[in-house]
Queue: 2 jobs
Job 1
Amino acid sequence: MDDLVICIPVKYDGFVLGVDEAGRGPVLGPMVYATCFCRESYYEQLSSIGFADSKQLTEEQRERLFLRLQTTEIRKHTGWSIRCISPQDISQSMLRRVKTSLNAVAHDATIQLIQEAIERGISVRKVFIDTVGPPVSYQKKLQDLFPQIEITVAKKADSLYPIVSAASICAKVTRDKHLENWVFVEPMLELLSKKYGSGYPADPNTIKWLRDSLDPVFGYPGIIRFSWSTCKKLLDECAVRVSWPDDENDAPKSAKLTGRYFIRSNKDTADLRQRSKFFNRHKAIVLASSL
């Protein structure tokens, strides 16, 4: 996860803080959580600037409002912070043996952002959050963690509270810039198209990019969230099926684990090692050995 914060060195003033995200539903790219906070005494003025749900604004409008947050006059009273959750982190959380749901990942990101604001000296008095899951239980969870703060969790909070709208814009602009400037670390993918569409599974342009970018052997680059059913379905349809022989199952039951890994490599003991059935079945021969 990447974290970026622009803070205000004012500790005695009370602050209102909003939290929202961008990129929860797409099959590719990061999920970005953002907070925006401002002095309580400045909140009404911030509300008059014109912040709204980022999904209701054009890209040009979002970037213009985002730049306004960086102006000297507004930065005297406000600040913002983001947390980028990479597609690899999302996939790892949702696919490991003990799975972590996307809701739990989102809750953790929100809690960390609020806690970090407090630790940096921001006197947070009120928090407004766009809900993830049932708002009542989510609000109780946060209120128990931060009893000194007045917490409000609501559906469509990005349309109801300007401070959440500002956080929504910070998150959306950041995610868009991540995708626009994405660097494929995999070899020979420098020229891969970045015309992803919106990234949502229902977008025909996104599905076209997913089909065009799928390597039948190596699959997808790291920008993809492999835990999404869209990705799994396309891999099942278009990728080469791979059989992974299980040496553990092929080994004789009497073989000890330590014996199989730490056998002495001399002529007297070399015959004790059992070849995998996979190699015998395919009549594979040894061309070179490091022993």
Note: The chain has three domains: 2-180, 186-242, 247-281.
Job 2
Amino acid sequence: MNTVPPRHMSRRRILGLAATGLLGGTLDGRRADATTDDPNTVLHRIISRGTLNVPVMVGEEPGYVKDPATGEWSGYYLDFLRSIASVLKVDIRTVETNWGNLAADFEAGKIDVAVGVNPNAQRALVVDYLPDPIFFDAWSVLMPPDRHVSSWSELDRPESRVVVQLGSTMQIVAGAQLPAATIVPVADRATALLEMESGRTDAVVLAVFDALQIASRRINGHPLGAVSVPRPMLRSPVMLCVAREAGNEGFISYLTAWTLEQRSLGMVRASLERGWKAAGIDVAAIPAEILE
């Protein structure tokens, strides 16, 4: 008996097969078989399970925002993920993680799709990146309020102590642009900011939207830091990625269409602007080249 659903089978029919066990896999894990000729296998699994499993990260505002009182998640990355799930008519299931563990989470089958990732060749050995970015960000440095740099070379000195998040693209950027500086990898953004507040670092490498949100905070009435976008400006594509596995072609096709639709109709920009406003980010402070 053919247990692989046809490519254009309705969602109701897919769910019916899943309920009777005829999809050849479990409802909450990856298929038992590692190969399949059906490009919609991953889509079938997500719909059958009824949830889209997605990563979320504490301290990664304004893309990921956790309400400490309720534990609820918001932010523009969650807006994007909920939109992706709504078309599939499934719920969101969040998995707390960090950038350094993302590839391992994909390999373990904990998550289906990640949003907000930057191109990373090491990570691309185990995940598939979508070909089109959702939007562009840029790499910046958060420095003490009275400091500013106009170029990366101004920081590229042995006496410069620059903090990055371990296993992140920030670490790659710092290694490439600041080979003479002292690069200090830390576990997460909260630890990086503690280094800044304590005066133990000259700069923290961050995506500019994240840095602007942090700089808007005040401690004892004073800004936490100032944001510089060093030249040459390094524009960073913000992308989606999925686990590399047989049968993910239909899922990738769907996500590619979703990305192009969201961008072309202005929905990405609208979500970003809502997130910037909620985070206290002044759009006028964002370099015009990034928003083009």
Note: The CA atoms of residues 174 and 183 lie 7 Å apart.
